[in-house]
């Protein structure tokens, strides 16, 4: 599996059985392909509750897409509704878990995931609504950017999506929880050492697992 698929599989344990879950654009959408059938009720901002896995080649319905305009399937019993109703669910606190991507995460657990200065953007979309309205927010992101620079930083240089901190950060290397305004390392991916995580993380964090040892 590539890094993105590894991250998606590592997110699954953070989704409670039967939860209403919104999967953000990018890596989060891959989580749908790794969830056991009927494990959760997946919701998308454009108006579908009951999103299924990615369709097989040649079986995509061009009218059935998620908020990122990529093809999806619908589980039996899925419901369709207006995007305004979907945002009402989000803002009303009816989405239990949101899984979002991130460009950067700061030392307090706040994220920037919608705008890169100097580059054209379409807007923040539903990210700020999900950050404020969802019960639990899980970030699914690669540990570093394409140029190798850390995504977990002391202060975000990109515009913050919201002031609310996320609850969990999952990368291909490690998992952090945000506790008392700071990052706590709670899991290392198989074969990854604490030294590797420290070398690729630009924000301070506490170590919350006894088995995390330096190489």
From TrEMBL:
Entry-linked NCBIfam families: pcaJ_scoB_fam
Pfam families: CoA_trans
Family matches, as InterPro entries: 3-oxoacid_CoA-transf_B (IPR012791), CoA_trans_fam_I (IPR004165)
Residue ranges crossing the lipid bilayer per the database entry: none
Protein name: 3-oxoacid CoA-transferase subunit B
Organism: Pseudonocardia oceani
Lineage: Bacteria, Bacillati, Actinomycetota, Actinomycetes, Pseudonocardiales
Record-stated family: Belongs to the 3-oxoacid CoA-transferase subunit B family.
């Amino acid at each position: 599996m590539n890094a993105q698929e590894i991250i998606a599989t590592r997110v699954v344990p953070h989704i409670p059985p039967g939860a209403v879950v919104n999967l953000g654009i990018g890596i989060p959408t891959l989580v749908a392909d790794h969830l056991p059938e009927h494990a959760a009720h997946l919701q998308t901002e454009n108006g579908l509750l009951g999103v299924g896995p990615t369709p097989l080649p040649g079986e995509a319905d061009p009218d059935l897409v998620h908020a990122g305009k990529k093809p999806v399937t619908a589980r039996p019993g899925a419901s369709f509704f207006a995007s305004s109703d979907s945002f009402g669910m989000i803002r009303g606190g009816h989405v239990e878990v949101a899984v979002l991507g991130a460009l950067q995460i700061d030392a307090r657990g706040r994220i920037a995931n919608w705008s890169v200065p100097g580059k054209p953007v379409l807007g923040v979309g539903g990210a700020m609504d999900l950050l404020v309205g969802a019960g639990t927010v899980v970030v699914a992101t690669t540990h570093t950017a394409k140029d190798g620079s850390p995504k977990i930083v002391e202060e975000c240089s990109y515009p913050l999506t919201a002031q609310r901190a996320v609850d969990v950060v999952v990368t291909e290397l490690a998992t952090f929880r945000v506790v008392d305004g700071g990052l706590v390392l709670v899991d290392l991916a198989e074969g990854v050492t604490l030294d590797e995580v420290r070398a690729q993380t630009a924000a301070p964090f506490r170590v919350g697992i006894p088995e995390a040892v330096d190489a």
